[in-house]
Design goal:
mainly alpha; 5 helices; about 60% helix; elongated
Length: about 120
C-alpha cells in the first residue's frame, strides 16, 4: 500500500494515515503579526484600553470643531462650576475651540504614551 493512501475505519471513525497540514488561517497570520509587534506578548488589556480611549477622544474631540456641537453644549458649560468663565473670556465658538484643542492634545498624548 502506498504512503499516500489512507484507510478509514468505519467502526471507530479513525484513520491510519496522515493529513496534509492545513494552510494558515487569517487569525494565525494576525496572531503572528501581533506577536512580532509585541502586542500579544503581554498587557493586551492595557493596549485595548488605551486604543479605546484614543478612539473615544477622536470621536468626541472632532465634534468640538463644529457649530452644532457648540450650540448643544451651551447649557452644560455655562452652568459648570469650573468652566463657566470660558464663555465670557472666549465666547461660544472660542470656548469650544479650546475644548477641541484640549481633546486633540490629550489624544496625541495618549498615542505618544505621555499619559501613563
Amino acid at each position: 500500500m502506498s504512503q499516500f493512501t489512507t484507510k478509514f475505519d468505519t467502526t471507530t471513525g479513525g484513520s491510519n494515515g496522515t493529513r496534509l497540514p492545513a494552510p494558515p488561517s487569517l487569525m494565525d497570520l494576525l496572531a503572528r503579526v501581533f506577536v512580532r509587534l509585541g502586542i500579544l506578548t503581554g498587557d493586551l488589556d492595557y493596549h485595548l484600553l488605551r486604543a479605546s480611549m484614543v478612539i473615544i477622544f477622536l470621536f468626541f474631540g472632532y465634534q468640538k470643531w463644529f457649530q452644532y456641537e457648540a450650540d448643544v453644549l451651551i447649557p452644560y458649560i455655562s452652568n459648570g462650576p469650573l468652566i463657566f468663565w470660558l464663555y465670557p473670556v472666549f465666547g461660544v465658538r472660542g470656548a469650544h475651540l479650546v475644548f477641541g484643542c484640549l481633546g486633540v492634545d490629550v489624544r496625541h498624548a495618549l498615542v505618544l504614551r505621555i499619559l501613563e
